[in-house]
Structures are given as C-alpha cells and as structure tokens.
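sorry for the late reply, my laptop died twice this morning and i had to redo everyting from scratch. anyway the thing you sent over, i finally got around to it. pasting the sequence first so we're on the same page, its 229 residues, then the predicted structure underneath. double check i copied it right bc i was rushing
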Amino acid sequence: MVDFRGGKRNSSILHRGIIQENKSMITEILRADYPSAINHAVDVLQHGGLVAFPTDTVYGLAALPFKGEYVEGLFSAKGRNNTRAIAILIGDFADLLKVVDHFDEASTRLAHRFWPGPLTLVVPKHSALPDALSPDETIGVRMPDHPVALALLRKIGPLAVTSANISGQDNANTAEEVNRQLNGRVHLILDGGPTSGGVPSTVVNCMSPSLTILREGPISLEAIEAALS
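ok and here's the structure:
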C-alpha cells in the first residue's frame, strides 16, 4: 500500500515507481483550499498518480508528462483510445522550454494575448516528451486561467491533462461530477467548486503559416485573427 502524506490510505500498489490501480482503490476528494492540498496533489503526481482539478473550462485529469507509463494511466482511467493526443498545461511561460521544440512568432503573439485562458496551441513537441502523449511530432499546450490549476502547475511544472470524464461521456464541471464518473479510477480529486466555462478550450494548429482551428471553443476565429493582425 501507498500511504500519501496528509490524506487517506490509498490501496493502490506502487510498482517500479508507478501507482497501479487495483479493485479496492480509494479515490480521495480534498478541498482545494485545504492548506496542504496542493502539496498533497504534487506528492500523488510524483508517485505516478492521477489527480483531477478544476480549470477555467472543465475539470481536468492530470499526470506527469515525461514518463509514458504515467501518461498511459490517463487513457486507462478514461477508457480512451491511446492514439488520441493529450495536451500539456503549464503555469509559467518559462515552462514552454520543457515541452516544445520551438515557439514561432504567431504562437508567441497568441499566447501572450490569450494566456492564461481557454486557448490550446498545437506546436512542435519537445523530444523529451514520450510518444504516449501524441502520435506525431506535435503537442497541444495551454495555460489555464484558474487559481487552483495555476497553483498546482507552478508548484510541480508542466502536466499532461485531459478532461476528467469517461471517454464519450459529459465533461465534468464539479468535483462531484468527476467522482461519479471516475471514482475508483483516479487517486485524488481537488474540489475547487464548479468551473465557470463548461466548454473545452479553442484548439489552434500552429504548425503552418496558415493557422487553422481544430476545435471551436470560447475564443473565436475573429478574436484570433485580430490578435495576429
């Protein structure tokens, strides 16, 4: 058993540094404003665990991004096809150097205009990131505009984050909704109250001079074009 500091005893097994889910796994729910909540979430993540937390759009589910085994846990928890890419969330512009190969002028202008905020930029992936994150040489990156998400990201660094729901089911806007879908599949849920957005981020492909929107979201094409004009 792994006994995380500051929380309940979790019945997951620590095997080669990776937390493996078993049938008696307990999902812990912890208020995000609890004094040790962020440090506890960091501890869980550093041991290969999965943590759900609120963002400016929906609740996200996170793992450390630099080990493929940890990333695969996200697919397992969601019942998701592992050929689909998972984005990276950052809490500081300096963290871009850890996750992208390069960031061109257009990407930089969009990031400085809309981050923190609901805009994901698809850019060249850093060689240190595992193939499990995406099937090609690109990666989606964004900086969320939510105090809990930013506190966690600035404490631990970049995280691989997907929506905290079973694949194909509704996005979760509260900790209770996350728990209904992912109880027994994730190690910790940080309860930061309901999310304000409810709509996933706009995704923009920045891999060519002609930018394209891959997924519509809160930030419109007109706003993106205006930021680049």
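The mean pLDDT is 89.
thats about all i looked at so far, will dig more tmrw
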